[in-house]
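Researcher: Going back to the complex we discussed earlier. I've cleaned up the inputs and rechecked each line, so this should be the final set. Can you rerun the prediction on the complete assembly and write out the structure?
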Amino acid sequence: MDTHTNKAPKGALSSLQRWLPTHPGTWVILGLCLLLSVPVLTVFSSITSSSDGVWGHLYETVLGDYVLHSLSLMLGVGLIVLVLGIGPAWLVTMTHFPGSRMLEWALVLPLAMPAYIIAYTYTGLLDVGGPVQSWIRETFELRFGQYWFPPIRSLGGAITMLALVLYPYVYLLSRTAFIEQSVCVLEVSRTLGATPLQAFRRVAIPLARPAIIAGLSLVLMETLADYGTVQYFGVSVFTTGVFRTWFGLGSSTAAAQLSAVLLLFILVLVLAEHWSRQKARYHHTSSKYTRLPRIPLQGWKKWAALAYCVTPVLFGFLIPFLQLLKWSTETWHLLDRDGFLGMFANSLKLASITALIALVLGLFISYTKRLRPSLALRGMVRVLGLGYAIPGTVVAIGVLIPFTWFDNSLDAWMRETFGIATGLLLSGTLVAVVFAYLVRFLPVALNTLDAGLGKIKPTMDDAGRSMGLTPLQILRRVHVPVMRGSLLTASLLVFVDVLKELPATLILRPFNFNTLAIRTYELANQERLAEASSTALMIVLAGIIPVIILNQTISRSRPGHDSTP
Amino acid sequence: MFKKLSLSLSLLLACGVSAQADEVNIYSAREENLIKPILDLYAERTGTTINLVTGGADELTQRLELEGANTPADLLLTVDVGRLYRAKEAGLLQSVESEVLSSVIPAKYRDSEGEWFGISLRSRVVIYDKQAVQASDLSTYADLADPKWAGKICVRSSSNIYNQSLVASMISHNGVETTEAWADGFVANFGRPPQGGDRDQIAAVAVGQCQLAISNTYYLAGMLQSADADERAAAESVAVFFPDQNGNGAHVNVSGAAVTKAAKNRDAAVKLIEFLVSEEAQAWYAETNNEYPVRADVPPSELLQSWGSFKADDIALDELGIHNAEAVRLMDRAGWQ
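Model: Rerun complete. Updated structure for the full complex:
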């Protein structure tokens, strides 16, 4: 392992740069990044506009709440996902206890559960009128108010719901990091007298830090962008404030400015983390990879480990899944099942197309950044990365503005020049929808691919170059096979995210086009939770398959270890 | 009767004569399951092609505005008048003159300039715990700010447009100052922080967390007809009270339709609105979602009839849109989350 000593071999890289295909390639990538950053930049550009005293009103009344609640939400979710993510990742990777092989993949399952759906199900279960509290009242002959029960629709409830479905990001990424860690490092720490726990705390965790941070930042950005859960629970945070200001107070400017404040906040966090990491490098200098020795846990330890790892699966997946199943068997006969198959196909189609594009784009951006880490490109990628923290509706409007502008300008020009009306070419088509998905979810792919590429030693590039390969050939013949795991992880994460996406799809989709998420939302929005359960269940089922594949990939992703069949 | 006959006749003719079938493109804030069945019926009968996008009214209006003159949308459907007003103010709608619409829809439920039309009605009422509260304890919306209700009222967030419209109507009737004083007292009476939807408020009353809830009429009706026995039982333990029966009348909002300014199928769109207020379609609205029909000659569903008739507020619905932003500010100041 090296942290400070081995700076990226500059000489090698600059010699590579001479062999880059051409500068235009970099420019194309930069242009693409710029294009995808347009929605984010649109939000930022609002800062200078005047908002007619709306800020004064917000400052005097609700702004304090927005800030306080958003910060508490981030802090709470952040802490819980670390506890639920890292510990189980380490336990299932490094130790052996009853059920550990099964938990390996089961721990990823909550990823398939959209946050708003888990919020609906737990509300159905735990709210004052739900079965749990009714049971308490009947069994102990109490009336409401004579017993204490945590209110599900509260800030605490929102924190719990979001943490339960978002921890898999931390789990997945830290598990990948643990799996890929060279055993040597851990063996050295053990020969130096460290206990397994010390090795975990002092070696494995610091080494996995980029992965853990990457997972955590995805979680925090998703938390800040969440609208469905906080709105349903009546928690006033920045996102709910954005919509209230926009539509209720009728000030789109102030609403955009609120979003911009949100983004600045995230930017500061991202930069602070980057700065604190400084020049540390996390790839391994040793290439000794032996099979990971799993420590068999004995006695109470194995039961404790089991309980620890089962908890997130139980609450994040099993209970809500069973509740959905119960509801959907009760309401199945009521449903208009026409078009179910179509919605299912639409959801899968959008998710696959977006995942594929995100993969290719992400790979090229990431690789270009590795080869030519120019300030412009790195900055652009940072801005692009903020897309994940913008609420879907804001992204959608941020996509509509440039798309309609382009369509209308083209139409006007064509009419004037050729007398042909082109109408709306891109807006109102799936192109706009997929574009919005990319703005929101490309950061997920980029994060994963960056981490994957970062772990490949620069000497691999050098070796490839010395054998006369072009950078593109190196990418195809050296990097892609080595980072197969990261590639699959990136595309599957995007796939699952698109399956769950709601607001951008809702606003941008063409006529007569429905997805599972839309049907679920429409029924839930009419407060028909039970009837919404069947499509909700289908989203979850469609998400489980990629999630399980994801897990298999990661298990097999150990370098130098049966990664190629 | 003759009108109805001539309408169906003209529909038949239209479909027989035009070589190219009519087309109507709709942006609808009514969810698909609450509009598509009746649209399908119309499409089947007239051969009109109907294309539908559903979504939030605010977002769809924004899309309409950005798409400008090239928008494919001919018709905008919303579930409250506030959004129709906003669309009108943004210059996205056009005036329609239709004898059918102006004769069937009472003047107060359509725009004076013919830019939007109410299709169905809903009232925002007080739902009370039958055991803890007598109907005689209740009187007006204003009375809900009385300290005797301290800790007894459940209502959803003020981000909800129905609450915004209710408060806007009070501003219109009583002015900002009186309404703000009312809101302060009302918020002080909350039994819990605003959360969930209207059904959740009713459920909270059913278990005794609150004694009064504010809700739209069709939510209670939906609960009474729910597939879930618990939900039905909860709904049966509460009753409806129409406030202000000796004053302005109970607050009423409309779900409505408007032809967009850039509509390329204007006539077909108008014909579709005319169909939506036909006796047949109105009866469908009443039965499917327990909304009050906009035309007086179609009775509400039996369930709604069992709650009795009521005096509706006569306020010009524009007023709800005009005072919307002020209502939101006022609720912010009153601490209504």
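Model: Worth noting: The longest helix of chain B spans residues 161-188.
Researcher: Good, that matches what I expected from the previous run.
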